[in-house]
UniProtKB/TrEMBL annotation:
Enzyme superclass (EC): hydrolase
Signal peptide segment: 1-25
Organism: Dactylonectria macrodidyma
InterPro entries to which the protein is assigned, alphabetical: ConA-like_dom_sf, GH32_Enzymes, Glyco_hydro_32, Glyco_hydro_32_C, Glyco_hydro_32_N, Glyco_hydro_beta-prop_sf
Protein name (Swiss-Prot/TrEMBL): beta-fructofuranosidase
Family: Belongs to the glycosyl hydrolase 32 family.
Domain of life: Eukaryota
Keywords, comma-separated and alphabetical: Glycosidase, Hydrolase, Signal
Length: 686
């Protein structure tokens, strides 16, 4: 008998890493040979005549001679048209106008692409490909509820050689995002990129495999923009993390969820579990709206928390905001607190005694949401912090219970001074070290305050931002069985409409799990949890000690990795240094540290489809004058952790497949790096 040696643990890890890498690589959408079938495209494909010459108005008044615009920007940034002109869907007759625009006929090539913007409404707003002989709609793509144009790439090889035409369809009568924008229809190899090593990421709903077609590992890998080690829903919208908890050895992550569209809407709670708070397994939806039959009725289950009820059978209990859309239900209380319990972590039963809090306290505004329950060591009772307002400033109401059902109002835990918003949501309150921490959302920013607590009132001693980047909101805290204070934040925010992933049917992701700690200055710090080391899909590239000047250093090329650097600022003579991420010939994210003012600057001005801007944070150095940065790159997202606990989170949305280089350059001298390590990372779903 031939005996096969049992593999050693290191061999198993290597084989697993190789298999994960193979799955991820194999799952990226593959397009047919663009040279196989190339035919001329439609007339006036980019509207560079300044008119709709070559196109025909089939019906309605939404499109016409005034549809073509040469405007370069709108209230939230550039349109990103190619050349000078494009079709701006509301320019002819306004938002509510309807109609259809048709291109000239052409033979389908193997591939085609175009730019689309405007409203998200797959049924009523789209750019479509129609076969001439029978009028069949072969493919279609809606917008993103943003004016900016995004490149869609289609595999049209199955219709190669057949006569087709493009339609720009608008049957929406909405006065909000009731239009569609289009530009730059391309066919053949020209459809795949801008030349000079700039290949478009393959985007579009038509490129997304059916949800039932494969396991989550390969299914989630098939999307050029989808983060691989951050929680997302395959289709639909998520925002606030909710119900974070550890129960029976598993971490539980719930999220605000709209399964019907990649837009905010009637709120469900999605549900996932993990043994390590890194690798996730999707579970059935935990909470659903009372009546989901009318999508315009936004009544649903808003954010809340989860606790383990050891006194009543070790059940997992969800405590949440029951929101009622009073436009559809006049006279109803808009926001109340309800509960649901589960014995198996799968099915959650609503309590017959709901609501357990029937509305805000007397005299308080109607804004009353996002209950966060915690065990209060000052009196060994359950307490609930809930977002509120006094009409001028945000505030947090405090409730008390002994059984998680009957709640009494303690009073106002804390009221702000108005500078952090006139209403607060998603409050969290917990002890950390010798302080108490309160954090909340206000003015579309996440704020923390540290201070003292006497059992009923919080006194603030220090305030700051939870995250110094553009894309973090509604962070939620929980404590695991080992006593770690953990948190996850929504990687998004309300000021920006930039969700290019909507063209693929989804929007919203959650951060990696973070561990919270008190910084030396009394502020709140964050660090990535140690279990994220398990994501390594191969050996780290270790560049060792390097002195980097203006000639620069090429670190690597990747879209899913962890970059860890340590800098000896005592030996650094450079005025600053820049780490470039998601870099190609045409775009990059810049992370610059300036030595004189100890400032870290995140610059997304030229970073793809995402929100353009710069964000800064002052970073405290170690006693040895060292700076460490722990950077997570994940296809379209970025998380930067500095050694002092500063964190910056951003969504990036690169346009090109080549936008994956990582480089470092010093300015006005050399930067002394003690170590530079780049580790490839795999998927949370594999």
């Amino acid at each position: 008998m031939h005996l096969i040696p049992h593999p050693q643990p290191s061999q198993i890890a290597s084989l697993l890493a190789l298999s994960v890498s193979a799955v991820l690589a194999a799952s990226v959408p593959k397009l047919p040979n663009c040279h196989a079938h190339q035919y001329p495209g439609p007339r006036n494909p980019s509207f560079e005549t300044g008119t709709i010459e070559g196109w025909e108005v089939v019906s309605g008044d939404a499109f016409g001679s005034a549809s073509v615009s040469s405007a370069t920007s709108y209230w939230d940034g550039p349109f990103h048209q190619v050349g000078t002109s494009f079709v701006l869907g509301f320019a002819q007759a306004g938002e509510a106008a309807v109609g259809e625009l048709k291109s000239s006929s052409f033979r389908a090539s193997s591939v085609m692409s175009f730019l689309v913007g405007g409203g998200y409404d797959p049924a009523n707003l789209y750019v479509g490909l129609v076969r001439d002989k029978d009028g069949k709609l072969l493919l279609k793509q809606t917008g993103t509820n943003d004016e900016a144009l995004i490149r869609i790439v289609w595999d049209t090889s199955k219709w190669a050689g057949q006569k087709v035409h493009v339609v720009v369809h608008d049957s929406s009568t909405s006065n909000s995002w009731g239009h569609i924008n289009v530009d730059d229809v391309r066919v053949g190899c020209h459809a795949l990129g801008d030349g000079n090593g700039r290949t478009f990421n393959v985007l579009g709903q038509a490129n997304q495999p059916p949800a039932s077609s494969s396991a989550a590992c390969s299914l989630f890998a098939a999307d050029a923009l989808r983060p691989q080690f951050h929680y997302t829903q395959y289709q639909g919208w998520i925002n606030d993390p909710a119900g974070l908890s550890q129960w029976r050895g598993h971490h539980h992550l719930f999220s605000q969820f709209n399964p019907d569209a990649p837009l905010w809407g009637p709120m469900y709670w999605s549900h996932a579990e993990s043994v390590d708070a890194v690798h996730w397994r999707e579970l059935p939806v935990a909470l659903s709206p009372k009546d989901a039959s009318n999508a315009s009725d936004t009544s649903g289950r808003f954010t809340g928390s989860a606790v383990v009820d050891m006194l009543h059978g070790n059940k997992l209990q969800l405590i949440f905001t029951d929101y009622t859309d009073t436009a559809f239900h006049p006279g109803a209380v808009q926001e109340v607190v309800s509960v649901a319990t589960s014995r198996d972590g799968i099915r959650f039963d609503l309590d017959s005694r709901n609501p357990v809090i029937a509305g805000p306290p007397a005299g308080a505004p109607v804004f009353f949401r996002d209950p966060k329950v915690f065990r209060d060591p000052t009196d060994n009772s359950w307490k609930m912090a809930i977002g509120s307002s006094n009409g001028v400033s945000g505030s947090v109401q405090l409730y008390r219970s002994t059984d998680l059902i009957s709640w009494s109002h303690v009073g106002v835990l804390y009221t702000g001074d108005g500078s952090t918003g006139n209403v607060w949501e998603c409050p969290n309150f917990f002890p950390l070290g010798d302080k108490w921490v309160l954090f909340y959302g206000g003015n579309a920013l996440g704020w923390y305050e540290t201070g003292t607590y006497n059992g009923s009132v919080f006194t603030s001693e220090k305030r700051g931002l939870i995250d110094a980047g553009p894309d973090s909101y509604a962070m939620q805290w929980y404590q695991d069985a080992s006593g770690r204070n953990l948190a996850i934040t929504w990687m998004g925010n309300w000021p920006s409409p930039k969700w290019p992933s909507r063209v693929n049917g989804w929007a919203g992701s959650q951060s990696v799990t973070r561990e919270l700690f008190l910084r030396d200055d009394g502020g709140l710090g964050s660090r990535p949890i140690a279990a994220l080391d398990k994501l390594a899909s191969g050996p780290a590239k270790k560049l060792g000690r390097r002195r980097v000047d203006s000639t620069g250093l090429a670190v690597g090329s990747t879209t899913a990795a962890r970059l860890q650097v340590a800098v000896d600022l005592g030996a650094t003579v450079a005025s600053s240094f820049t780490v470039s991420l998601f870099k190609s010939r045409s775009e990059s994210v810049l992370l610059t540290y300036t030595t004189a003012n100890r400032t870290l600057t995140l610059d997304t001005t030229n970073a793809g489809y995402g929100q353009a801007g710069t964000w800064q944070a002052v970073v405290a150095l170690s006693a040895k004058n060292k700076l460490t940065l722990d950077i997570f790159v994940d296809r379209s997202s970025l998380e930067v952790f500095a050694g002092d606990g500063t964190v910056m989170t951003a969504n990036v949305w690169p346009r090109y497949q080549e936008s994956k280089d990582i480089t470092i350059v010093g300015h006005q001298g050399t930067a002394a790096f003690e170590s530079i390590n780049l580790t490839p990372l795999g998927s949370s779903w594999c």
